[in-house]
């Protein structure tokens, strides 16, 4: 049995920096990883998908370059080369993270799968086939989440894809069905359509991006359909089966029944916390009905000294939130800070093209909460920078408090939407009111400059 001051299970975007900082603070720290250092973000999420999306965007811009007076000829996509480039970037990021942990004095990196075998006791099935028992004063669970596999008739007999396995394809699917019309499904669906696949998106709700305002969902639907993706909403899947080497999906929408044949099927209906193998009951750690670990605003579980960070605890499943979780627990435990998850901003960006970026509350949330608010909105077809670059799809939208003039939230559906949203997030953090932004001096011509015009839509 080996004792540590702190043990971290999982080397994601919370676990890795936490391990190094705890060691620098003089804590003997162990970090256990069952697969690859870097977690979902580096290995299966942000890094590989955004790398491949960049290739898809180039292909799309080349095909549509004639609109800007540039003739490119036939556009050919080599998915094998795209995958190789992605793999090289992932490996670079992963190896850098691993080397950082291995070089950190006071950190022991252990490859294996951990399970609780007692209160603050872990048994690790190591990669060399041995078992090791470890104890610690503090334990941080950073095991993340994995693809949710729905209960669908016939699915177990289909060689389906997940958001992880689809990134290893070397041949472009002839026809890709995507089950799920939210962030992961839309990013990957548009990406493969731009690579050359026919893409059909199936969403059980009445609209895609159901967490966003209706006008955002409607605009995104129009953009994707105009590009050539088929989007079916309000559907239920009866069954699926293999038919002559193809995948057949039988579905219903209202009183209409339909069968769709495709070459590939992607499951993108959500994520499930990776807690099943942890044997949390042995430590007495509580989970909710979906398997997510329950934590308080300091990220501590019901067991003193055991914390959960990142996607495994539920809530916003974003890399930047996981990283902020590390900031919170490190600050509170080592620097005697009083950090909390209460009221922290939750910015996010869906990397479709155009991007869909959000900060703060939406228009529908403002209504639900009873705010006295005003909505400012301009189409990107009225934004000078968008017109000049040929990026006129989408709109900018902000919700402001009528009395205080503070910005309550914004949704930027546009080229570089994430960057524009971040400007507004900084304004919100600094308490800058919309009337001041109306007359700000921004560099010309930039996308952010049109925040002037966005807020000019509000008349006092």
UniProtKB/TrEMBL annotation:
Similarity comment: Belongs to the class-I pyridine nucleotide-disulfide oxidoreductase family.
Active-site positions on this chain: 444
FAD/NAD(P)-binding domain mapped to chain residues: 5-324
Residues annotated as signal peptide: none
Keyword Lipid biosynthesis: no
Superkingdom to which the source organism belongs: Bacteria
Manner of cofactor binding, per the entry note: Binds 1 FAD per subunit.
Residue intervals of the Pyridine nucleotide-disulphide oxidoreductase dimerisation domain: 346-453
Binding-site positions, NAD(+): 180-187, 203, 270
Disulfide bonds: 41-46
This protein's name: Mercuric reductase
Pfam families for the chain: Pyr_redox_2, Pyr_redox_dim
Cofactor(s) needed for function: FAD
Keywords from the named record: FAD, Flavoprotein, NAD, Nucleotide-binding, Oxidoreductase
Keyword hit for Flavoprotein: yes
MF (Gene Ontology): flavin adenine dinucleotide binding; NAD(P)H dehydrogenase (quinone) activity
Residues noted as binding FAD in the record, renumbered to the chain: 50, 311
InterPro entries the record matches: FAD/NAD-bd_sf, FAD/NAD-binding_dom, FAD/NAD-linked_Rdtase_dimer_sf, Pyr_nuc-diS_OxRdtase, Pyr_nucl-diS_OxRdtase_dimer
